[in-house]
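fwd from M.: "can u put these together and see what the complex looks like"

so here's what she sent:
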Amino acid sequence: MPFNRKAHKFNASINEVEIGTGDKAIKLGGENTFPFYSFDGSLGSGPKIGVEITDLGLDGEPDGVKAYYAGCNTIGEIAKKAAQMPGGDFVVLRLAGGDPNGANKSVDDLVAVAKEVADAIDTPLVVEGCKNVEKDADLLAKVAGALQGKNILVMSAKEENYKAIGAAAGLAYGQKVGAESAVDINLAKQLNVVMTQLGVPASSIVMNTGSAAVGYGFDYTISTFDRVRAAALGQDDKMLQMPIITPVASETWAVKESTAAEEDADEGWGPVEARGISMEVQTATACLVSGSDAVILKHPESVKTISRLIKELV
Amino acid sequence: MALSGIQIFKLTPKKNCKECGCPTCMAFSMKVAQGAKQISECPHMSAEALEQLSEATAPPMKTIKVGAGDSEHTLGGETVLYRHEKTFVNKTVYAASICTCMDDAEIDAKLAQVPSVDYDRINERMYTEMINVNFGKDTTPERFAEVAKKAAAVRPVILSVKDEAAAKAAMDAVKDTKPVLDGADASNYEAFNKLATDAGVVLGVGGTSIDELYDTVQKLEKLGNKNLILDVTMDSIKATFEAAVIIRRAALADGDRSFGYPSIVKVNKLTDDRELQQSLVALFTLKYGSIVVVDTMDYAMALPLYGLRQNLFTDPQKPMKVAPGIYPINGADENSVCLTTVDFALTYFLVSGELERSGVPCNLIISDAGGLSVLTSWAAGKLSATSISKYIQENVEGKIKNRTLIIPGKVAVLKGDLENKLPGWKIVVAPLEAVQLVKFLKDMKANGEI
């Protein structure tokens, strides 16, 4: 008896959200099947890769990242180089310097940084905040205004500050909004509901349902992705059909495996940079195959590898 | 197809003899339907009924064993496609690969490297469990057997070979170690089936397409062999991913028993690029590889991979716990400041990661809090001033001289009670979030408080 292959088709799809303008604009989402299940249906335009830079420059970055940006002196030059990274589709500016417990840069300074970056590149831009909800509310609202017309994605709108960020980015200035929740399908849905009630069109929302480095509670990440996609496609849940974007680099380059210098690490661990790349590559792979429509990376080697993976599977 | 409890009940003797341990035949039938009991546990079932039922109530995917003695690994036996539905049961096993086309020095070096990755992570031993021995071009059966024997002394092996004479020579040499004889396909399955069944080992079956593989599996099943593993590696990454998903889904979602076997994915055949190999090994850990073969497993590849596997295979209803104890961080000694939190692995990793980033030497004290997060365990009464003080008096005071204890900000309410219960200790309340610990500890250090 020959094998009776059964396709698993859905009558729903993930929203397609465009970011950027002109020729280099990209679409996130659009698929009507589970990640990379091209044998079941359409993958839309396929997952995308963001290249992360921060306003803090290159200090503290791994050697391979520093080497890639060698010769860049201003944030504008760094951004330009990031936009050219082979395999990358868009640039992500993380305004880490805004953190009141860190560099605590002023909102005006950071808006100027965002403008410099936006002016330097023609690829789509995603802006992440500093993780402090009060500061982000002010900062990201102002960034959204300053970059009006660029069709950027403003991340980091959380339960606590979605009104300020959503209203500015999604309503007043016509940008796209990234709704960030903490690894829980109900929280993700709730945030999308309140964001749309605020008036932000569902078609302007991208979700960051939270992430972790593999090994660090990634079980919750997997199950959240699996369940979000099952609800979006299987039950046609409109409030979960937003494409998913996942910051990977900021999680994976902070864990012990990626930071412990060879002399401080356990025996046999080997050079720290190779460990960091492994953490980034494997976490990004796991996110993509579980449901991310875009991953944010920073090491050129990781970007190259993940872009090859996507090409092989799409 | 699964039967309902009523359908099973109709076939039971309906004697209510209780010999199966259930009060009634009906209760027994309901348990069989849920998979909680095996039909064979009823001593009075007629032979025909038993046959009819064991076929219908058998699990959708076979559980098979490879390796012998302490090195035995259990594969397959999965019942769901997603971990949130019900726990994944038998974790992915990883194999490094050698080939008879390598010279002896290279083979020896690779075999010596395999055991070097071996460490503990949250009560689980992490190491490369198997070795794939590839039959290279122009190899004699004797050499294949010799290399297989060398490898089998290190780890259980997968014999990747399509040549019957070589397979036979290697089986003669290593069959007692219960290798996987991998290489059966449409052209040689009869001979390979005989080799595998005679030696009582698992037979690996491959094919150039999903349909061809299915056809060969059915032929092997007709010959009575159900001790199989399916090599889903196809000629491209895309085709291999498709095969891995389609085959597992056919078995678990569509009830096709002929695909109800564990799988093997040889990512080293799909690419030579090390970085892409590690991406693929993560991919096929999530999407249904029971054994995944890479060229070389080193620490850089293993650290994220084994963490991913550990996360994937945890029981979603049972959180991962770290063992209670004193965990010194940043070279802490008996005079370093103490912090405490719960034994929930996620919390432990978050907190210890931030403590490491602070660079401040400190002792992280973990007591048994039921594997729950800080607030949940506090609400459940598992993290209390009593539980913390008892643990500290019994296990810490004799070993640590420092008498400052930092407690999680979320249970600041415990401070007063702890001060009463732990005389001589200074209790300090930490910030609410772990990420704030770095600055908090640095400030304390700068102010000379610790």
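replying to her w this: Chain B touches chain A through 64 residues (CB under 8 Å).
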